[in-house]
Every structure is written in structure tokens, then in C-alpha cells.
Amino acid sequence: RWAGRRPLRGQGSYQCCLCGKVETTDHIFFNCSLSRFIWCGLRLVFGWDSSPRSWDDLQGCKLPRMFGVKGHLGLFLFSAIAWSIWKTRNKMAIERIFPNNPIDILYNAISFMQKWLRLLKQSDQVKLAEPMLKIGSWIKDYAPLASSFTDIVEL
Predict the structure, then answer these.
(1) What is the pTM of this model?
(2) Distance CA 101, CA 64 (A)
(3) Distance between CA 12 and CA 3 in Å, rounded?
(4) Is the model's pLDDT at 1 over the cut of 80?
């Protein structure tokens, strides 16, 4: 599945501005390094055996169960995450603005969840409190490796 982006006025490319691979919907939302970071973080938060690698991985009832909520609430959480990934991708592809830290994508997703939460029934808002808190706690506790691994030696 191609992402549907056309080069602007014949300029541009069909390749990911981050890694240079062909930009498909699966690549943007699941396989690009930024997306993989997000899904791997969420895998840790929710205790999944594996991260989704394509839209096909979300078929059936898997999406709501992934976040520990029922039906439309899983779709709500996924939508905020996907929207954050998409907006980040557009900033990179169109404006050439790259995130300073990939964790910012999850911060933005939480922000969307908080804004959109008011659109849900009170009972649904209560059900989403725990998964949103789990994501927020993981973000707050996230610490990248302090040391970097390289083959460059300083003399």
C-alpha cells in the first residue's frame, strides 16, 4: 500500500525522508525507525509479545485488546498514536523539521488523547484513564542509554 503522497509539482520523492525506503502506509506507521520506536515503547508499556508490523497485524479484535480496553476505546488510543506519527512524518517530509527526540511523538499522542477525551462519554473517559496513565508513566521514566556505542576511537 502506497501512502498516496504525490511529489509537490513534480518535485520530491516517494521515499521516506528519514530512512530513504519507499513510503508505504505500513512503512510510515509501523516500519520506519521512528514508528518502530513508538511501537516498541508501547509493547513495553502494555506487555505485548510483539509490536505490530503492518495494518494486517491489527485485524480482527487485536487492536482493542492491545491496549487493555474494549472496542472503540482501543481505536481511540490507536488514532491518537497514528495521528501523532502522521503529523511528525508530515513535518519531516514537508517542512524538513525533525523531532529532537522520538519520545516527543508519544508526548504529542498523549496530548491528542487529552484533547479528544472530552468528546467521549464520562464512563469511557474513566476506562481510558489507566492506559493513558501507563503511557504517561513510561514516557516520564524513559531514559535513553547514557553511553553510545561506536567504532570511533578518540586519540
Answers:
(1) 0.84
(2) 28
(3) 14
(4) no
